[in-house]
Structure formats: C-alpha cells, structure tokens
User: Fold these one by one.
Assistant:
Number 1:
Amino acid sequence: MPSPPQVGELTPPNRTLMGPGPTEVHPRVLRAMGTPLLGYLDPAFVEIMDEVQALLRYAFRTDNDWTLPISGTGSAAMETAFGNLVEPGETVLVPSNGYFGGRMGKMARRAGGEVVTVDAPWGEPLDAADVADAFDAHQPDVFGFVHAETSTGVRQPDVPALVDIAHEHDAYAIVDCVTSLGGVEFRADEWNVDAAYSCSQKCLSCPPGASPVTFSDRAREKVLAREESSGSWYLDVAEIMAYWGEERSYHHTAPTTNVYALREGLRLVAEEGIEHRWDRHRRMAGALRAGVEAMGVDPVADESYWLPSLTTVRVPGGVDDAAVGDYLLDAYDLEIGGGLGDLAGEVFRLGCMGYSARPANVAFLLSALGDALDRQGATVDVGAGMAAMRDRLAE
Amino acid sequence: MPSPPQVGELTPPNRTLMGPGPTEVHPRVLRAMGTPLLGYLDPAFVEIMDEVQALLRYAFRTDNDWTLPISGTGSAAMETAFGNLVEPGETVLVPSNGYFGGRMGKMARRAGGEVVTVDAPWGEPLDAADVADAFDAHQPDVFGFVHAETSTGVRQPDVPALVDIAHEHDAYAIVDCVTSLGGVEFRADEWNVDAAYSCSQKCLSCPPGASPVTFSDRAREKVLAREESSGSWYLDVAEIMAYWGEERSYHHTAPTTNVYALREGLRLVAEEGIEHRWDRHRRMAGALRAGVEAMGVDPVADESYWLPSLTTVRVPGGVDDAAVGDYLLDAYDLEIGGGLGDLAGEVFRLGCMGYSARPANVAFLLSALGDALDRQGATVDVGAGMAAMRDRLAE
C-alpha cells in the first residue's frame, strides 16, 4: 500500500509554446482561472453560460442554437460531432491526408459507421473533384473533413465547395476547425457547415478542457431523430443541451474553471474583433513564414493552402529533428512540434496562435530556430531571415 | 450573424459552496492553476503525470497500475468505468436507491448491457442479502454500486461484503466514490474493488475537469480482452493508458491546468495524511450533524450509514425548501443543495468536503441555516445547535 508520496511545489519550467498546441495561455485567462467556483445552477453561473454561448456563436460566425463547450479536450468535441451525427450502418467519408482525418475514421467506426476515404498526400489539401468522385462511388451519409490539419499545417482552402458536394448528395458535413477557430477565417453559417468543433488551447489561448462545438438546425434534427442512442452518455449532445439550453436540467457538473477560461479567451476575441484577429494571425505568421523562407528553410504548404496558425517547414538535409527540438527546449525553454505520421522526422511544426501570434514570439522563435539549425550544421542565413521577418512586420 | 457580444469582466458573487458539489477550491489549488502550460509530452509534464498517478494511488489506497485522471468531469470517469468494463450483451446489476445508481443503468445500457436492479429505498443503503438474491436471480457480469450517494447522503457501510458477493459469482464490482474519495474511508485494494471512479470537485477541493479512476489488474485484463471496441474513443481507457503509461504515445491533449489542480489537491491529501483527512471529515461533519439535530432538524441517514461528506436533513414541516435555498444565496452568498428524485422537496443536502470541512464553514452554515429556517417559521433552537456543534468540535 502506498505511503504518502513526497511531491513538492509545482514549479515547472517556464516554456514558450510555439508548437501545434497547447499554446501559451493569455495572462488574462490565467487570472480569470483564479476565480472561486459557482454552483452549476447558480443564477450567476447560468448567466456565464449564456455569455459563453453568445461569444462562441460570434467566434464560429453562426446563429446555431446548439453552440456550446463540451466538457473535455478537443477530441471530446470531435467525438461529440461524430458520435451524435453518425448512426449505426451509415457510410462516413473521411480524408487520408493527415492524422486527424484518421482519427475521424476511428470515431466514426466506434459510432457504428462504415468508413470510406478520399485521398490526398499528407501536406496537401483535398481536391474537390476527388471528393465529388468519392461521393459518387460511396454515397456517404456523413462527410468529415479538416479545415486546419494540425499534423500538416494545411488549410483546406475552399470549405463551402466541399460542403456543397455533401449537400448535393443529401449528406452532412462535419468540419474540424481545432487549429483555426479564433485564428483563421471560418464561417459556419455562410459556409453551410452542419457541425464544427474546436478546442480551447490553440487560437483561443486557453488551457485545454472545454471545447467548442456547433450543430446547425439541420444537424440537430438528425440527432434528435436518432432511433438508437449514441455510444456515449457523457457526450450525448441532446442531453447536454438540456443543461446548456433553456431547460437547465442537470446533466453533469460543468468544468467551472475551464468555462471561466473560455469566457475570458472568447472575450479577448470579441474585443479584438474576429476579422482583425484573423488578419493578425496572417500578418504574424506571414512574417514567420517569410523569415524561415529567407533563412533557407522550405515551408511544406503552398501559400494558397498555407495555415497561418501552424506553419510546417521541411527539416533541412542532414539535420536531426529531435536534436533541434531538444536543444530548443533545453537552451531556450522553447517548444516547437515535430512531424507526425507520414511526415515524421521530415518537418517542424511552428505554431503561431492566439496570444503567441505577436512580434515578440515570432522574433524569438525565428532567432532560436536559426541558432539550433546552425548548430546542427544546416546552411541557414539567420540575418536574412530576421530582415525578411522585420520587413513583413513593418508592412 | 452575431456582432461582438458585450461581455464584461468576470466578477461572479463570492459564494461559499456547502452543497453536494462543486465545493470550494482550496486557495493553493487556485494558485497552482495560474501556472503557465507545458506541452503534453514535455519531460516536465510527464514527471507531473507520474506524480499525479502516485498521489492518486495513495488517495485510492491502491497499487493499481491503471490509476489516472480522466479528462472530463466525474461522469466522464463513471462512463470510463462502465463503458470499458461492460461488454455488449452482458448483464449489469445497479442499485435503485439513489440518483447515481440510475445513471449507472443509463451508461450500462449505452455500453450494450442488459440492466437489472437491486432495490432499496432512497435514503437507505443496499442490504447485502438483497444483493446476494439479485445475483442468484440475474447472474450479472458486472455489479455497480455507490459508496457515497450524492443524492441521499447515504454511505454504503460494508463495501467489501458487496464486492465479495460479486466475486463469488465471478462478476466485476464497480464502485462510485465520487463523494468519498479523499474525505471518507475508501480502500480500493483492501476491499478488492475492480474499478472505482471519483471526481475532483468534492473532497479533493479542486475544480471539476480531471476525474480519478482506478482499474484492478483483473479489470484491466477484462478490458484488454474485449472483442468489440468500447463505444467511446475519448473514454477508451486502454488507449488513454498508452499516454499515461510507459508508452507515452499521444492520445488526446491532457487538460493541463486541471492536472495541475489535481496535483495540488492531492498533494494536500498526502501532506495531511489520508487517515487524518477521513478523521477530519468525520469530526467536522459530526459537529455539523450534532448541530442540526440539536437545533431540531432530522438527519435522513442513520448514523451507521451516514456519509460525513454530505449530510442530508429533512426539510422541517411547513418550510418551503426553495425559499430557504434562495434566501441563503441572497443573504449569505451560501449554497446548499436541495433534494433530487424521490427526495425532491423533502431534504436539504449539506456538503462538508475537503477545504470546506473546517470550523469556520460549519459554524457559518449552521448559523445561516438556523436563520433561514427561523424566518420560514420553523421551530428551531439555533442556540442549542451552536452549543452542540461547539461541544463536538471541542472533543
């Protein structure tokens, strides 16, 4: 039987997080998290719930009634979308061009779906013609795809075109905006998205733990018409909405502090204005991208489908990517991401999200990365990189 | 399309939470939550994960390898237990003597189980003879029961006796200790429990969002031998353990700040010593119980199965329970709980958990409740209540 473990004060290193997430939490969000709790049906908490939903609708660009944070991390929101919209025996189309398309397939299978794929190489977006072909071949009931692929740094450039294909086939489109919500243009209503989900720890600069989802009225009707309950009680969106909606009936205790955090993170979005925020991400990450390119490092994604919140770049020839990551962590307390799946060992993933999308972080990341690559013997021109960054920031 | 909502600074009322939960967060836990994030595979975070697991094993009184926090609130931990241990077509025995036994049935059905019940009135524990009869009648594969019923304030007094019945029938016992872990004696290993789950926002005095579970080696083998995947990818404990165990392979991003909070809450448990903590809850809640009784208000649970962390008392005749709750919230910023289910309108639920289990809170609650009942025209002797409380605290 264990005796009391000797565990000291929480004193972790003070990292700068510029990988794929979690990212740095905004100081105002950290401060909000020191607020004492309220009961889950306290009138003051109910008011906060309403505020969070209004702020989420603003961030998603939607009027959807079913817009709320799920009490878990981004994957919980993802499974809320797939677990509720996919019914046993339905065919679900998912992409093969990134790690999170693969996860969609796993969740769709748990929900009883038959999974088919539309293919594109890792590092490229889906082609609308391929999606149309996949629809003709498989007649899927649900089509999931990724607006902002965290594993590749690829932005699916024309979301409405893909959604339209789904609707022409009477199917439902679920869109992953985990790495775009609050940082990269996303318009749930204008793009006719049926369901979208995100997380709190990327462009919203909150800790993980309360994750946004939105369901259109059409998607809601599908969920409410289910003959068989979804696989998870905890993630049953109709039952959760009995608490988040007007009924206010207890489902599970909301993660109070994560809701406080999300409220503050979303309040920062509203204060800045969502379009200005998208623009800031483009400018800051654009300076980062210009800087790495001028330094002599190649971005993976073409500019036409580049994802500002996550710039993926090739590991220069002869460079040990793990050694670069370790050096940045040890020498600079700086975290960047390595490659996943088909891109393992081949890329670095450079996040520029929310609070991190600012000149101080971009300049720091660029100079530290230049140093690390130089130490690894790569031919990099750090001076040219910094100059290109500076010029872009000055535009 | 929504314009930016006008949402001001987060300034909720400063409540004292003495209901069924969430309860007050310990100031050291609030402080720990201001700590900046780490990446989910940062060596410093991996060390924190190990510490949290060691601390959880201490609190659960277990050496179970599969001991970890689930990334959600208590109901997520509950569904992790039922969703993974119950396989389609299995028979699941659950109790009918409280709200959370009912929830067990709902989750077991989602997992594909056939649900049968063992009955006892709300406000009383299960009788071992009834459990044995139910086993003989239904031969269940899994038996779920509640150590500490949050809806009734009843403690199941002899957990090992019920677990033994399950084991004699080659079944698995899942025990709900949501309202007991860290406050009321619970011994996972000594009592041979197969799986137990809890939450962070009751006797551990953390915010909700990272919820303890433990699976015995025997339970783990059942999970690993499943032919069909469980219904939820997010709550698949075998996959989650690939991240929390030695493999350290990415499953989902851990809720960093909630893990920090849990670490600090559990560190407070280890510093105090778990037996001392159980004793403190008995003493403080004992003073509360003595006080309300001396005041003229009847506890629901007999002393032999009273749950110190949650004392349920009868609403005195002629008193409007909702008016009492509203008055306490308005006049004192004090939250207590009302009745649920079969006890709706008939009881108050008085929490005394973790950081709240101290003289200041007990005295405040007793005096404010006395005032509220007096205003409602009940015959209460507040002076006698305070004297009885004081005498018990002095013992």
Note: Chain B has a mean pLDDT of 97.
Number 2:
Amino acid sequence: MEKFEVNILGCGSALPTTRHFPTSQVVNVRDKLFMIDCGEGAQLQFRKARLKFSRLNQIFISHLHGDHCFGLLGLISTFDLLGRTAELHIHSPEGLEERLVPMLNYFCRGMGYRVLFHPFDTREVAQIYEDRSLTVTTLPLRHRIPCCGFLFAEKQRPNHIIREQIDFYGVPMHELNRIKNGADYATPDGRLIPNSLLTRPAASPRRYAYCSDTVYMPELAPLIAGVDLLFHEATFAHSELSRARETFHTTARQAAELAAAARVRRLLIGHFSARYEDESVLLAEACQLFPDTLLAHETLCVSVG
Amino acid sequence: MEKFEVNILGCGSALPTTRHFPTSQVVNVRDKLFMIDCGEGAQLQFRKARLKFSRLNQIFISHLHGDHCFGLLGLISTFDLLGRTAELHIHSPEGLEERLVPMLNYFCRGMGYRVLFHPFDTREVAQIYEDRSLTVTTLPLRHRIPCCGFLFAEKQRPNHIIREQIDFYGVPMHELNRIKNGADYATPDGRLIPNSLLTRPAASPRRYAYCSDTVYMPELAPLIAGVDLLFHEATFAHSELSRARETFHTTARQAAELAAAARVRRLLIGHFSARYEDESVLLAEACQLFPDTLLAHETLCVSVG
C-alpha cells in the first residue's frame, strides 16, 4: 500500500509544557509532505522526525492563533538558509500574508525562493488543493476566530492489470491505460472482454480529517463520515465541559461522540490542555464511547487506513 | 554564596538540528532572571529548565537575526495567557519594536501587560541596566549586522559583620549599616576601632560576559579581562577559519585565544554549526589553549565564579 501517514510534531495547546510542543503535523502522501499548522518549534520537530524539508511544498494553517503559526518564520528562514528555490505555498484564513511579509522582508532579506499565500474562506467547504493523487478540502469549524479543519482525500486509483489475462487475450500495450481506467477490451475478431476479467480493483481511496481548534460540532459528522483517520482536538476532559464551551474547545468524550456518529475508522485525539500531566484520562474517556481511539504524542506516526 | 548562574536553553546556530535549539540563555542572579537572546523554542526550554516565568522581567537581544529572536512572539503571548501584569523590558539593537509590535497587536490583542523596548547603540560600551545588585553593559561585536555582547557584573556587596566583635566592642545597632559599608567605629570613650576588626570583606563581585555572534575580536580582551565566566561563540573548528571569517563567526581556537588573553576564569563555548555531529572536536581544540573550557549543551546550568 502506498504511503499515507500522519506525523505528529506537536500536540499541546497554547501554553507550553515540558511534555508537548504546540500544534503541528505532517501528512506524508507517497513522500510528498503536507504540513498542517506550524506552532513554535515545528522545524525542530520536523528534523527530529527525520522528514525531508525538500519534500514540503504546501502548508495548511487552520487559524491564526500563535500556537498554530508562530513556527512559520523559523521554518521559512531555514528553507532560505538551506538554499531552497522551490515555491512554498501557505493556505490559511485571511490575514497571514499581511502579518508575515513585513517580518520576512526584514529577517530574510533577498530570499532565494517565493512564499505564496492562498487565503481561504473559513465559512465554506471548498477544495483548496489538488494534485494527481490527492485533494484537500476545508472543513468549517467554530472557534474564537475564523478556523477550518482539513480533509485529505486520496483520489481513486486506476485498477490493477492482471498480467496473465492480458497475455491470454493478447491485449496490445496501447490499450492498457484505457483498461486500467475501466474500459472493456474488444478483440480484433469482435469479442468484448469485460474489464472485470482483465483487472483487479485498486484499494479504495483513503481519507484523513483534521479538526482543531473547535467547539463540539455534531454537524461535522456527514462531512467526515467514514474517514480512515480522524484527528480531533480533545483539549479537556468532559468534567471541564463548561470551560471547553467558553473557550470554543472540545472534550475527549465529545470527540469520541463525533467519531462514533461519523463512523470513522480510527480517532486520534490531541491539542491537550497544559493541565493534564497524564493524558490517559482523556484516552480512557474517549475509548468508552469509541474504542479505536489513539492518543497523540510527539513523533507518533500513524498510518491512514 | 548567592546565586549567579547561567542556564543554557539553546546553543545551536541558525540551522536547526536534532541536537540543539537556537540561541537562548537565562542568567539567574539571586532568583531574578535575565534572558539573553530568545531563539525559537526558548519558552519551551525555559519550562524544561524549571525556571519561573514570573521572575523574568528583562530580555537582552544581541542582534536581530531570527535564530536569536524568533522565540519572542511565543514567549510574550504565553506571558499574556498566564495573566502577566508586570512590564517586560526588551533591550536590543534598533528595529525590533517596529517589527514586533504589529505582530503583537494582531496575535495578542488586548494584552494585559506592557512590553517596553529599549534600543541600544551597538557601537559603544554602555551600561544599559542597573539594579541594586547588578549592572549590564554592552560589548560591541562585529557580525554581519549590528550586534552586541553583554557584561553582567555584580556590584560590590557590603562587608560581613563579625558578630562576636560587634558584641565585644558594644557597637550599637544603628551603626551597623555604616560599618558594613567600611566605616570604622568610634567608641563612646573616644577609641577608634578599625573596620577590619569588625568585618570580613564580602566575596568579590562576579562577572559574566556573553559574546555571540562575532568574528574573532582580540580587542575584546580588556573589556572582559578577568571575568569569572566567558560565554563565547565557537561556531566552527579552526580548520574552517575562512568560512568563519566570511560569515563573521569565531573558531573554537580563537575563542580560547581570547579567553587566555583576557585571563578569564572559565570559558563556555557554544553556537555550534549544524555540521558538527559531535562537538568534542571543538572542546578539544579550545582546551589545548585554554584548559578551563566547557562545552555548552541544552539545560546545562553553570555557576559564575
């Protein structure tokens, strides 16, 4: 199976602790790297995770709170020191470019590559990135400031050719692409060989949903229904429900409720409040409702699907 | 002896490695904390060193390269989240306020405390801070942009009273402060008791000098002569002398030469280039010329004097 992994660089919330870095993740899709959020220290954790800077071209920022974007300056500077020439694309809510560009102009004068900013509207579900194998779509969240989650969806891949059958029916090379994409094969003497005899279906496309920071939103369920992996914030235990509501965060139990309602395959919780010395209380709470729950921690690498 | 310690939060240079954080130190003088430089992740390392945020009121930035100041935004935000009300003073070369304030206005709207900026002239030796027990003085350095080191000097403390002698000569309470500060004591019957009979001298004031980033400057020696601890950058080994000169950095051997010429008590080297997987080569090189050399590493705490 081709690589589709989530690397946790940081899973703490705004206040620093000795246990966690602020939020940052790297999604690795067939060795193309996509960063989600970039809290302070993200570049240091990136090195620790032994990921390659040169593979990172797209960064997605959920919202403009410092603990989700203060690592950008250091990362962008480092890329320049390393002689990067490839463009870097940053997708975020409105407002980042105006703040970051004056800093870059001062601290990275004469930068050798371009940073391109792509603001998105946090109120709508919209595809904001596409390549040959992947799309990224915004998931509107409700936080104290405009905020979006992201849905990473693999595209359906072509069917796999069954080599023996191709040989048996004498299918010429130039027909193979059409057949991979589902066409039947007409032999020179007029017979129609159905595609199902010539190919095996590719694995179904996998999906990863990232939802942080947000108050509990049951209405997210249809948007993330059946994803292979859901990262959801679980800043607090349910005993802190009122604090969670006030600060527009979610409890571990609520994250599990959403995972169950959306029938996701696995739930990964993170964005832990600094008050929890030991987050196993959050894990236990989520597992009661949704047993396939994992606790995020720095340098964890989880396979999607 | 009262506390005068240097805590290393980060001792790498600009490129991140898995071994080092960028530059930051905390000087602890009798539990008042002074930060020197504030690279990315400084607030995380501060927590790891188990230092108290509330004790930090003064930050000194040597120069405006990102690896020496990109941690400020996160640190300042965190102080606000923690409900700080005390003013925070930042001493740095010209230009920091203009860059930082727009970011703070956006990311820390309605901050509960004031950040006061105190730009200093990097071309002159000047006292930029003073309290009851300490002065901080700039040490002009030569780097690619305006840059200063800092000399932290304890003030001479009053002599220690010899309790038995005070009792023996029947010295009244109200005379004690004068005597601590060196006065002799005139008895009611006209005898003069010399101060040396009544007090022991306090320990001599200790001094810490911080010199980073800079090309080798032998002319620094008189400014830092005899300090108890000299932190000096040693970005490269001497085999990379031409690279050191080009980038306005120092080699380990040059740092040791300066330490020897200035007859300092101990030398602490840091700001290591990312190319050194194992910095013992730098330590060995420095020790050849100046045996009392220490290698900086994260969470190291060195006593001054």
Note: Residues 123 and 140 of chain B are 6 Å apart (CA to CA).
